[in-house]
Amino acid sequence: MAVPPGGLGAFGGLLVKGLGFTDFDATLMQMPTGGVNMVAMIFWTWLVNKVKLRWPVASFSLVFSIFGGAVLARVDTSNISLMMVAYYSIFLSTVQQLLYSWANLNASGSTKRVVTTATMFACMCAGNIVGPQVYLAKEAPHYRSGLYTAMSCWAALAILIVLMGLYLQRLNKRQEARREALGLPAKLKDISLMSIDEAEAYKVELMETLRASGNVDMDQLYANSFDDMTDFENPMFIYVP
User: Which pTM value belongs to this model?
Assistant: First the structure.
């Protein structure tokens, strides 16, 4: 996740300058990347809330980055318009932000969350150190080693995201079996992607279902809400795939 932006952050301006721009124009051409990233983040967040799944959106968003890297590495630099479209396409993926929030949602317990966040931050720093090392001056203006490394990381990340999504679904099945064994409702909906109105309506619906069943103590659903339990320990925890 961190190696490609680490390299592009340091050498993105040189990639653009290699297309024939002056130093000043190359700097100006970097300005839209922030806007592209912001618009993409709003779009992917909307799409996540629409499909109610994170892993397909996060994985698919990397297609644009891989496309951009492939064009920059292989297409002749004389086609300036296509090259700039490819360069800006790289910033259409906001997988970094999506994965940080995803990791936070799928870990429970104070210590586990701190360790998870700290590990990601340490790896992020390592990736930002490694990223610039694969851009070699002798390969200007294409910097193919850097771009191939970035594309490899994006492809591997897309595969890992899919595998993680499937793994989280498997963990949810295990949680359902645990709840069923405890006499609690097996199927619970994830409210993290619901609107406030939807979440409130679902809580009312759940309470009515439990009240109608007559054999489930409603307090059991929230018995562990304020306990410092990891997601493996808490049978009421719902993983977010």
Answer: 0.86
Give, in degrees to the nearest 5, the angle at Cα 148 between 86 and 65: 35
Distance CA 157, CA 185 (A): 35
* Cβ atoms 171, 230 nearer than 8 A: no
Contact yes or no for 57/51 (Cβ under 8 A): yes
Query: For position 55, what pLDDT does the model report?
Result: 94
Residue 180 confidence (pLDDT): 81
Q: What is 3-168's CATH number?
A: 1.20.1250.20
Answer for the pair 145, 135: CB distance below 8 angstroms, yes or no.
Answer: yes
Residue labelled with tokens 């925890």: 237
Domain ranges of the chain: 3-168
Query: Which residues are CB-contacts of 97 (< 8 A; sequence separation ≥ 6)?
Result: 41
**Distance separating alpha carbons of residues 147 and 141, to the nearest angstrom:** 11
